[in-house]
Design a protein that fits this description.
The chain is an alpha/beta fold and 246 residues long. The protein has 2 domains: 68 residues; 120 residues, no CATH class. Helix content is 39%, strand content 24%. The longest helix is centred in the C-terminal third of the chain and has 44 residues.
Length: 246
């Protein structure tokens, strides 16, 4: 039977890298399963009838739930969410406070995407002056903490931001508002509203998992080959030395 002589350094390298590669593969599988469940929940809740805004306050898990609103937008405190692209074009998403007449609740509604090709010219948008009806759905970003890009008191409106936390916005405006962003569905008060639910689909995570597992197998195969090859070389060397002594 051939002896196995991989060497100390290759053994240490494999002992460190192999568990890491395997764990990364399983982590990607786990993330893919989470995204699959997320998309299933999204599809189920988006197919349901819209609820009243007052029901949001009693919902333990409001993510992706549809809501029917009737009230007015606050165009004086608009937020422009920067660095948003559509079809290779740069732009922003327009978020505005919305006061729902039925519940008296303030909600931060994302009205959709706007092009912003020239940074020297503010993006153009209009705000309905009268009360409007809006169907929207609650967006809860997975694993993301939103923060205001700057202190609202130190800037003029509308504000260009990179991220937003609704709770801090309500605190700044001294209003009682809903803690999550709502994304408007297509309608008269909406702009371009084709948002992806997740930035990376489950199939991408599965592909990355396959790559990590393939690298694990390749590393293990190389380690085994090196060990047997070194053992073979060592065996031939010993046989040659024995012949010389005879």
């Amino acid at each position: 039977m051939k002896r196995f002589r991989p060497g100390v350094v290759p053994t240490l390298v494999v002992a460190l890298l192999l568990p890491l590669l395997v764990s990364l593969g399983f982590w990607q599988l786990g993330r893919g399963a989470e995204k699959t469940a997320l998309l299933a929940s999204y599809a189920e809740r988006r197919a349901a009838a819209p609820m009243a805004s007052s029901e949001l306050l009693h919902s333990a898990d409001p993510a992706f739930r549809r809501v029917h609103l009737h009230g007015q937008f606050d165009g004086a405190h608009s937020l422009l969410l920067d660095n948003r692209q559509r079809d290779g074009k740069v732009g922003v998403e327009l978020l505005q406070p919305f006061h729902d007449q039925a519940s008296g609740l303030w909600l931060l509604v994302n009205r959709g995407w706007l092009p912003w090709p020239d940074r020297r010219v503010p993006p153009q948008f209009s705000t309905p002056g009268d009360a409007v009806s809006v169907d929207a759905w609650v967006y809860v970003a997975p694993g993301t903490t939103f923060q205001l890009h700057a202190d609202p008191a130190s800037q003029s409106w509308p504000q260009t931001i990179t991220a937003v936390e609704p709770a801090k916005l309500w605190q700044t405006l001294e209003r009682d508002g809903f803690a999550y962003e709502l994304r408007a569905e297509p309608g008269p008060a909406s702009y371009q509203t084709d948002w992806p639910v997740v930035a990376m689909g489950p199939e991408k995570h599965l592909g990355y998992a396959v790559q990590w597992f393939a690298m694990s197998i390749a590393l293990l195969g190389l380690y085994l080959y090196l060990g047997w090859h070194n053992a073979k070389e060592h065996h031939h060397g010993n046989g040659h030395e024995s012949t010389q002594h005879v």
